[in-house]
Structures are given as structure tokens and as C-alpha cells.
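User: Second chain of the day. Same drill as before.
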Amino acid sequence: MATPADIARYRAYFQDEVDGVFYYRTLAALERDTQLGGIYARMAAMEERHLELWRRQLAEAGVAPARERPSRRARVLMWLARRFGPDTVLPVIKAMETGADQMYMAEPLAVAERLPGDERTHARIASALTGSRGMPGSAIGRIESRHRSLGGDNALRAAVLGANDGLTSNLALVMGVAGASLDNATVVLAGIAGLLAGAFSMALGEWISVTSSREAAEAQLAAEQEEIALQPTEEQAELALIYQAKGLPEAQAEELAARIMADPQTAIATLAREELGLVPEDLGSPWTAALASFVLFALGAVLPVLPFFVASGAVAIASSAVLAGLGLFLLGAAITLLTGRNAWYAGARQLVLGLVVAAITFGIGSLVGGITGV
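Assistant: Same format as last time:
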């Protein structure tokens, strides 16, 4: 027996699907490209199947569904599409479809009817349409290859940022303690403690992040594998639809999808990429990520401490600032390998910002030391 809360949810879902059918029917009618028009028509058919589920649930609950009238937002969006063209509203459609599968994950009825999977497919198609509108297949292939190559860039970014975090945070700590006119042993102890605390914190945070992401991805992959086993024809049709949205002619898209689905391992890897945005082989090891995070943070954090092992007083403080400043400049320059900015400018900017932070903490340390008389 449906509760009032169930009925309220069913009505909300019903309205969402009414809007979805309206969006895609309208876009199909407006689209001059017959292939894209066909994609929108098939997306509308998926939404109609969803709509029928909630219409049936409301009927079983003894509630007459509201009139199948699109919401004001939907009508405004499609007015814009008619006035300025379908491309105008594609980013909005993409934003609405992204994450829509999560709305249905807690609904057993929706999960049984594969609504979350359909919504993920819609999101991928909307993303492909937004990003590759009008591009030939060869251009799309080049873009996809470029995106796949970004793994090394991400590793470099993580390395630079990890070392920068360690260097900046420990430089501030060391300068704050040194500013209080404490002896070398205390400065070294504080620096090593800051290094270890920060490195362990970074490592643990990275381990939790990668583990959580990996577990979530593995659950999605398992669900996708089950869908391939139970409904291979529908999965193949969805994959073909995604490739058409990326610019492939319908016949080529269907042929490519059929070849991919013939091999179960290739199928799961491809569907994971195209429907879920996952690369199974690149999920990463949480232990490797944690170790790398620990080491990189520690390498940056140790630089401000080193001079205090061999010198003391103003010499140690100045040497620490110089060594840390060199590290900051090099890290700032290294990030330009990704940004394309001028290395001298980026390095100098990082150097100035880091030394400003160090000067502030040194001043605070001096003030606190003077007040407390340490």
C-alpha cells in the first residue's frame, strides 16, 4: 500500500518524466540533422517508458496523475530552443541529466526497470552532444586520445601540489617557531613533527579518497556487468546511440557497438568509459597513492628544516628562507608544464606568496614569543 510520501514521490517523478519527454520530442522536431533528431527521438522513447512506470504506480495507488503538462521551466527552455536553436539549451539539459541516476537509486521499482542506467546513458549522450556537436569522427578520435593522455599531467599536478603543500605549510611552521626565538632543537622538533603530521594526514586522506572512489567505481562496474549479461541487446543499442551522439553515422555506430559487445571484456571496459566515465585499468591503488602523497609532502616539508641541522640563529633562518624560496620557485615553474604560462612569472609568484606566508608566521611567532617570554 502506497503511503502519502510514496505518492508524493511518484508525482514528482511523473512530472520529471513528462518534462523529459517534452524536452526530447521538441529537440527531435527542431533538429535539422536527421541523425541527431533520431537520437533525440529515441531518448524521448526512453523517457516515455519511465513515464509509464510512474503512471502505473499512481494508478495502482488509486491516484489520478496530474495532467501531462510540462513544467514552466521546461516550457521556457524549449521556447529558447525554438527561438535560438537546440544548441542553446544543450548545456542545461546536460546539467539536468548529470547525476539524475542517483535520484532513482533508492527506488527499488526504478532500479528493477533500469531507470538509473537509462539516466546515466542520457547524461553521457548529452555530454557527447555538448562536447562534440558537428565534429567528424576523426576529430573526436583526436580529442579522445588527447584526453586519455592527461593521466601523466594529472600525476605531475598531484606531485607539484603535494610537494608545495608540504613546503609551504612546514615553512610557515618553522618560521613561526623560529620567530619566537626558540633554540634549534625546538625548531627542528617542530619541523619534523609538522612534516610527519602533515605527511601522514595527506597519505591517509589520499588513501580514503582513492579507496572510496575505487569502491564506488567497482560497484558501478559490477552493475554494468550484470546489465550486459541480462540485457546485452539494450546495452548495445545504448552504446550505438552514444557513438552516434559523438558524430559517427548510424550504420558505423551500430557496427562498432556490435563488434565491441561481441567480447565481454571489451564491452565492460568500453561501456564503463562511455556510460560511466570510468577507465577500469586506471582506478589506481590506494596504497600507492598514499605512499606517493606521503613522500611528496615530506620532500617539500623537509627543505625548511634542513638548515637548522647545521646552523642556528639568523643564519639558519635566512638559509631556510633561501632554500625554501628556491623550492617554491621551482615548484611554481614546474606547474607551467600544464598551464603553459611563463615559468619565470609562475615561479616568482609562488616564491612571493610563500615568503609572505613565512613572514607573517615569523612575525606572529616573534610577537607571541615576546609576550610569553619564551
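The mean pLDDT is 81.

User: Great, on to the next one.
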